[in-house]
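hiii, so i know i said id send this last week but things got crazy w the move. better late than never?? heres the sequnce for the chain we talked about at the cafe, plus the structure i predicted for it. fair warning i was half asleep when i ran it
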Amino acid sequence: MMHGLPRVAELPQEKAQQQGAVAQRLLAYLRPYWRRLLAILALVVIAAGSQALGPLLIGIAIDGAIARGAGDELNRIMLLLLGVYVAGAVAGRYQFMLMGEIGQRTLARLRSEIFAALQRLSLRFFDRRPAGELMSRLVNDTEVITQLLGQGLVQVLGSLFGLIGILVAMVALDWRLALASVTVIPVMLWMTSVFSHMSRRAFRRTRESIGDVSAEIQEEIAGVKVAQAFTRTAVNQQRFAQRNAANRDANVNATAITSAFMPAVDVLSTVATAIVAGYGGWLVLQGMATVGVVVAFLTYVQQFFRPVQALSAFYTTAQAALAASERIFALIDTPVDLADAPGARAMPRIAGRVQFDHVWFSYGARNAAPAASPQRNGAEGEQYVLKDISLVAEPGQTIALVGPTGAGKTTLVNLIGRFYDVSSGAVTIDGIDVRDVTRASLRSQMGVVLQDSFLFAGTIADNIRYGRLDASDAEVEAAAKAANAHEFIMRLPDGYQTHLGERGGTLSQGQRQLLGIARAILADPRILILDEATSSVDTRTEQLIQQALRRLLRGRTSFVIAHRLSTVHDADQVLVLDQGQIVERGVHAELLARDGLYAELHRRQFRDEPLLRAA
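okay and structure toks below
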């Protein structure tokens, strides 16, 4: 791997949102479940009531039934106490069950919204974002939010109602002991404020660092073959160890901060217990309180700090969830920089006339007005990939694009399907600016065969049918036959129902290309883009591909990116690009006769190609 690659956490981060606004937006996801939430609230009240009634009944038993020796009364109180605790346990079980269901439904909705956001964003966005970091938001961050919604909210509601019930019971029993019990509350509030500020920053760092780790894992898995070929696995392990260590340190720091809060609450609980025991004992000696009341208060003090500890645990979960929510909402709210224009109409059936009218393009520039001149108005230092490109492809013509690596060939064809917007000038199809029609209606009439056809996990039939989802099995097979793929498919164990691994890794490069061509044939596009579909294959497979391509090109306007110049002999136009400009254009024989860049590329390739084939 190259040195000096930026860490994901060091890339420009989304501006942190106000936590209140983030929390409010997150809670809005619960609105559709308000009936279930009311049921949960009722169960929480029952559980809190049982928590508050228990010590009260114990105090009554001590001062009443035990002191008087009334066995029957004691039995009735104990049965009542058992019933109270059973009701609380049942209420607790069902409140967690209902909230867990709500949490999972919310998780599914969040992931759907994130996935939808990723689908509508342009290629410009993905050019600048590691896939692993985006996966971290889809998987890791949503899981943290589920912990909050699935369990944390029930805990905080139960704790709050439990505190209220305990305070009411304590005041009802003895207001003096109640005041003594809460003397430590100001200290606890101050301590909570200090820990909250520290933990908020710590958990934001944990979410960023886990994004780092996910991005690194995704990249290294995708490039493991290259890493092993260049014996860079040890270096990659060291790089991953650094990012993993940064994630570990961030989580250890966050854990250290939050774990310090729990012992502090325990100390306050002990202090409050000592205050109640000392002051309550003095009141008993003075005849101002009973032993049962003091015992009940000691139980209440212990119960009082349990909800406080639960609230502190909830706070830890909430901080992690809010940090994750900031990242998720920042992704969902990412503005679409390549959207359909207001009032965009559907593209009518394409005849196939494609025109580039003085097109300039830069990956760093936003789309400008068609008449803008980059030479006059371009950003200072802007690097234009395409410079003043003008061309016309008539319906049914095949346009070959050749030139050195980095000349702008792939960028040019990406503008036809409006995967990017031009920086200046215009791209029109049948006289219609591609910015004036919906992208879906435009791309539905286009087909693409890439240099390395992407295959999805699934059956071969499913991968071919990706070109037209409503195609029948017979149509899928006909497309495969036209692409010269039927023969090798039938040699596979399950034919068209053979399951492929990720990216079709069990197939050869040539077989993947044939399936990509079959997919394009099935889609029956009006405009076809081929990104050197015959590269990296053996001679026999190349012949099969060339035969399939001739069938595919027939009657369609086609743009062929060609590295092997032998594939462009029959093209209607050959455009030679160099440094983002068309430096030569014509047909094969004309360009050879001019003895320019095309002729030089041709001589160089056919001088080297016999050696490559012999090897």
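btw The chain has a mean pLDDT of 77. thought thatd interest u
miss u guys!!
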